[in-house]
């Protein structure tokens, strides 16, 4: 009697064949645990904040997106450095990756740099980083052009405040609540921007060929809309994934570098410094891309 192979296993071998065909190295981030360190006091909001130096960066390999067309087997970014800190109220991630150029414009034929954090809405991750039907993900998409808009508006506001009598310079700059777009994904090409934006804040710096991006959000509290927001709670372990876009390399949408599902370990609030705390939550996500 011949048994039928279950669809997930069949899909895995299809992906494996595609990897071989496109000569993409089998880079896996499964088994990696990212620790969000508990620290009392304010959570750092900027990449230059000194508190980041108290946390060791965790290097994570990146690989090409080859699940859906157009495939992108050769992204320019090959590694991502990740740090995370929380204080029981807010959580922040610092993402760092090499990029020789700054791309902060989005016009026909010109593409921006970007980075994203993906978190499942339920306990178990979707098979895809972009989510799938009945397994939705919350995506935080930092965009270099949005960061430029936010920074320029802040600069103009400071200029107006400090020099009210001098000549005024008028410039049309989009008003954005954040440089990070808060999205819900249920699969490729199904991203939906949430109506309320600004809960996730972002700040970034490019210097000497290195992007450093901070994304920060309040931890989940009783009464939060967890149907449309990832549950982030101190003392919990859950899945997380990342993506990076290099605009200079014409990367956009599904053409990107990815680090598929790994584990995010959020320290309990009463953790002892130097000890690995006991964490509860989803520990072993299935293989994914």
Summarize the SSE layout with pairings.
Elements: H1 7-21, E1 33-38, E2 58-61, E3 63-64, E4 79-86, E5 90-98, E6 114-120, E7 137-143, H2 144-162, E8 180-185, E9 192-193, E10 201-207, E11 210-218, E12 236-245, E13 257-266, E14 280-281
Parallel strand pairs: 1-4, 1-13, 12-14
Antiparallel strand pairs: 2-4, 3-13, 4-5, 5-11, 6-7, 6-12, 7-8, 8-9, 10-11, 12-13
Structure description:
- With 289 residues, this protein is mainly beta.
- It has a single domain, classed as Immunoglobulin-like.
- Helix content is 12%, strand content 31%.
- The chain has helices spanning 7-21, 144-162; strands at 33-38, 58-61, 63-64, 79-86, 90-98, 114-120, 137-143, 180-185, 192-193, 201-207, 210-218, 236-245, 257-266, 280-281.
- Strands 1, 2, 3, 4, 5, 6, 7, 8, 9, 10, 11, 12, 13 and 14 form a 14-stranded mixed β-sheet that branches.
